[in-house]
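To assess whether the prediction recovers the assembly geometry, we first specified each molecular entity separately, as shown.
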Amino acid sequence: MGKVDVRHVWAAVLLATLVVMSPAAGAEEKSRLDVVLERGKLIVVTLTTVPPFAFNDEKGQLVGFDIDIARLLAQALFKDPTKVEFVSVTAEGRWPAIESGRADMGVGGTTTYPDRAIRVAFTRPFIDSGISILVSKKSGIKTVADLNQDKFTVASLNNPQMADRAKRFFPKAKALTFDTPAAQFLAVRSGRATALQIDTPSAEYWAAQNKDELEVLPGLLGASQNNGVFMKPGDFKWWLWLDTAVAELRTGSWYPQYAEIYQKWFGKNPPPQKFYLSQ
Amino acid sequence: MSFARWVSIYGSTYWTGLAWTAFIALWASFGAVVWGCVLLLIRLSAGRWGARGVDAYVQLFRNTPVLLPIYLIYFAFPMIGLPWPAVVCGGLALILQNGAYISEVLRGSVNAIDRVQFDAARSLGLAPWGTFRKVVLPQVLVYSLPALGNQVVLLLKDTSLLSAISITELTMQAKLLTEQTGAAYEAFIVVALLYLVLVSSTEVLFRVAHHAVRWR
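The predicted structure of the complete assembly is given in tokenized form:
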């Protein structure tokens, strides 16, 4: 081997960067559905710090409602719920993981927003969500309005929807921004923050785990929301399969399996299969 | 959207992140060098138990990732009634860790000083503190300059971990922009270039300093 010319190295780096950035890269004809079936395994990007959706239990196993949803999808694809590989990321890592094709799809307490749907495609919702406020009991806060004082601090996640809600509902309170729900939770428990805003099921889970210290304020911060499966936009066949599968889980032939995991994680029955059918 | 267009729209949002990174790196580097000197002084002057204490301290910080003290200080200190701001906690964690490394770097340079100088200092009537301040420290800092520059570069890069405790330095800024725009590659390439500029200028600074003091 001769000496490596530094200019060649730079040229290679530049070329690699251009390839990564160019829109033509990764323009594949084949649908992800076929790729997944051929591979015999589903690759799912997920958060790992949002109980009860996706989190590590005492044994270090990745568990949760959203994890079970992914397993049901694997069951439908391969007749085997274990044929899933989970890729754990932080909140902002979800989008590049999908965009780059590293994962086939994503779950993990991920809410559908119109502005998010510009860059990732969502299926119909597989669970209702909303944003609630979790406060430390010591604070004496009883309503969201109480929170709007400059002596209080609210922990949020680093997404623009969280920042917008903070400005709208408690503009006077101080804001802290974290990259994981676990860090938000730690901030409230350690006294760094008075309260945090998070998906309602997560808030309820943490409140149930820490009955003496924490409680969820009544009412939602804004509207009821939808959590869905997300994927790279533009692949109709793949999107259609996922959306159909979610519809079957939520309102169709796989409703019993759906009800089972709903019971397991939330301790209550899911919303009725169809609004015109009595339970 | 082209890279150039993306930078023209969102480029200006990086200024605060750049300022925070530079600010924390600057004061934490200064603190780490001072703390490293203090540890060296303890090692040289506080007898066998002093040296063992410093050894234990260095081992503790050298064998744990810096994210741990960052989390511990930020999240645990409020529980014992010390709710210091994130910048102080993060900076302190960097100082404690890098101070340990720097004290080791300086110790290496102490060994490069001719033993005769210590005898000379004593015969001139210098107390141990005077010897340390007037004889040891000036030489040690000069000998150690290149290695210190290295450590400051490492510290500078470690400031990216402070995004975990809600400091909006460069890495946090890139995370926020990724969440906001979905453009992960653009956001992080810009940050990479900014770190490159910061680190290169630090290296140049230390090289200039080294040249300035070398021929004294």
